[in-house]
Amino acid sequence: MLQTSLEELKKGELPFYNIFEILNIRTYEEKLHTPFLRELLDPNGSHENGIRFLLSFLELAHAKTIEESDLSSVHIEEEKATELGRIDLFLSYQLGLKDHYLIIENKIYAGDQDKQLERYHSYLTNSLGKSEDQIMLIYLHPNGDLPTSKSIELHLRDRLMKNRVLKLMSYKGDVYSWLEQNYQSILSIPLKFMIRQYLNTLEKL
After folding, report:
1. Is 98 left (phi over 0), alpha (psi -120 to 50) or beta?
2. Residue 92's beta-bridge partner residues?
């Protein structure tokens, strides 16, 4: 009787069913992680949660509380093509009275490209003419590893990290915690289901 109940519970909850595993895209940046993050960060995304995900992500990135009233003019691009390289996620937004620009570089089992972070830094500061207090580069890795000297000269990397222009984030730590933070207050069952499956996927990265 107990065995039957456990089997029925398992069938009802499908604890091992994961669409990302079935489609074999767990480690794919362009097919899973970049578009999944872009959709959640977009206030106009089909998740119908408005600015919730973006606001909490920016709080995590800036390490400070941000009021919704302080944030406006949000624009998000995926795989943005520039003269200095293709950017995984590019965000522009107004925080208070100042424009801000944020680049997310996804690194999931992929090596650093030649001068990649240096090129993105140059794009923001030279091509767009922004000061370093307006920009942030996020190097997003499963475990929060440092970018190598192939991507950015070490003295520049260390200076940008010290000045909070370059920030290291991890999928298993930062992104996981960010989604867990929002999970309980989500009303949509389909959205909660997909986020839970994504969280299970992050555990296996």
Report:
1. beta
2. 75, 101
